[in-house]
Design a protein that fits this description.
- Helix 3 crosses helix 4, helix 3 runs parallel beside helix 5 and helix 4 packs across helix 5.
- The chain is of the alpha/beta class.
- Strand 1 and strand 2 form a beta hairpin.
- It folds into 2 domains: about 160 residues, 3-Layer(aba) Sandwich (Rossmann fold); about 80 residues, no CATH class.
- The strands form 2 sheets. Strands 6-7-8-3-9-10 form a 6-stranded mixed beta sheet, with helices on both faces. It has a 4-stranded antiparallel beta sheet with strand order 2-1-4-5, with helices on one face.
Length: about 250
């Protein structure tokens, strides 16, 4: 479904991503791990069109998407979240959902395409907020949400656009254990509904619980790939994580 092949990204003389190839099959939940500076978010930026790659190709459903703007890539059904959630802090949670659903409709034709009655969009926004545990916060200012709640809001907003593949950037960062279990269950539930996931996170426990396959990066390069249980036991991966925590 998604394949990044021999992707590189350079900033001046620094290779943030160095000849990396990853693939995500339809219906999979695939993880991308690595310590700070490994190149994970840089690779995300290239795949999603926010940063032009220096080399390599990215295909989605067999079509080249590298070099295309993020709005066009989103129109194909590939969306992403960010490490630091974006939004309008002086608007309510529900207003943020509605604003972003209309913005996404310009790129993505579907249930929320231009012309969809406001009542239906409003109903679906509330359904999504309820699913992500935010229904009780619908009329609260976004600036009053906690960091984990902001992540859930961004996740729910992305789902309003009905993505076929959703790239999650650090969804478990700052999330308590109880919410992490809920997040894991939610991702699996959405996968069962037909959404494919590529997930970046530092939390190995979370990644190994939710992902079937993992790609591991270090210093811009791919150092391991395969089934989750194998990759988290990889000596190089263990050395990097233990070393970074020391």
């Amino acid at each position: 479904m998604l394949e990044a092949k021999n992707v590189s990204l350079s900033y001046g003389g620094v290779r943030a991503v160095d000849n990396v190839s990853i693939r995500v099959g339809e219906g999979q939940i695939v993880g991308l791990i690595g310590t700070n500076g490994a190149g994970k978010t840089s690779l995300f930026n290239v795949i999603s069109g926010f940063t032009p790659g220096s080399a390599g190709t990215v295909t989605f459903d067999g079509k080249r998407i590298d070099g295309k703007p993020p709005s066009e890539i989103a129109g194909e059904g590939l969306l992403r979240t960010f490490q630091t959630p974006v939004g309008f802090p002086r608007m309510t949670v529900l207003e943020n959902m509605l604003v972003f659903s209309r913005a996404d409709a310009k790129a993505r034709k579907g249930l929320f395409a231009s012309g969809t009655p406001d009542r239906i969009v409003l109903e679906q926004a509330m359904v999504m907020l309820d699913e992500f545990g935010l229904a009780s916060r619908a009329n609260d200012w976004v600036q009053d949400l906690s960091a984990p709640e902001l992540k859930m809001l961004e996740f729910s907003r992305a789902m309003m656009a009905q993505p076929r593949l959703l790239m999650l950037d650090e969804p478990a960062a700052g999330v308590n254990p109880a919410m992490m279990e809920s997040l894991t269950a939610r991702i699996r539930k959405l996968r069962d509904r037909g959404v494919t996931f590529l997930v970046v996170d530092h939390n190995l426990k979370f990644i190994s619980a939710v992902c079937e396959e993992i790609f591991a990066m270090a210093d811009g390069r791919l150092i391991a790939e395969g089934p989750a249980a194998e990759v988290i036991r990889n000596p190089e991966v263990i050395r990097l994580y233990i070393g970074s925590a020391a």
